[in-house]
Amino acid sequence: MYFPTQADKEILKALMDSGVNISIEEKQVTVNAPLGQNGKAFHFNATDCPDLFPPLVVLASYCKGTTVIEGVSRLAHKESNLGKTLQEEFRKMGAEIELQDDLMMIKGGERLKGAVVQSHHDHRIAMACAVAALGAAGEMVIENAEAVNKSYPGFYDDLKLLGANVSLEAIKS
């Protein structure tokens, strides 16, 4: 079995710990079953990979139980205070996130709901909200969604290729 060494690829461990059935090969990762709301809560130390917090919060939001992620102190000096921003924006979708010392606790298992959320000009937040919207009930509007252009300009096009209903609208001033 192939286990990559790059810190961000630690997401594979979180996926396995949450119960997702995946196959890891040298040049590809295959998800064999959609997670839906059947995943289980997990514990993850993201101290050395703080950019994983947004996708981990999405995953945890759809897992039953309370997920604990360590390393929140590393999030204060990103484009936004990433810990507080995730808490604020995912609360709008119905997720319960508590920040305590260096821990983030996400109570998952309830279906997220569409909401008007703000990217805070942070590409990670915009992408996390878009991915969270894939399983949410109702429409999601992401203000300043163009923040994804910093790291992944084709993000929304790729979501469309995967079958997501994505509509990009310019803000009228």
How does this model look, in words?
By secondary structure, the protein is of the alpha/beta class. The protein has one domain (36-161): UDP-n-acetylglucosamine1-carboxyvinyl-transferase, Chain, CATH 3.65.10. It is built from 5 helices and 9 strands. Strands 3, 4, 5, 6 and 7 form a 5-stranded mixed β-sheet that branches. A two-stranded antiparallel ribbon has the order 1-2. Strands 8-9 form a two-stranded parallel sheet. It is globular, with a radius of gyration of 15 Å. It starts with 10 loop residues before the first helix and ends in a 12-residue tail after the last helix.
Summarize this entry quickly.
This protein is globular.
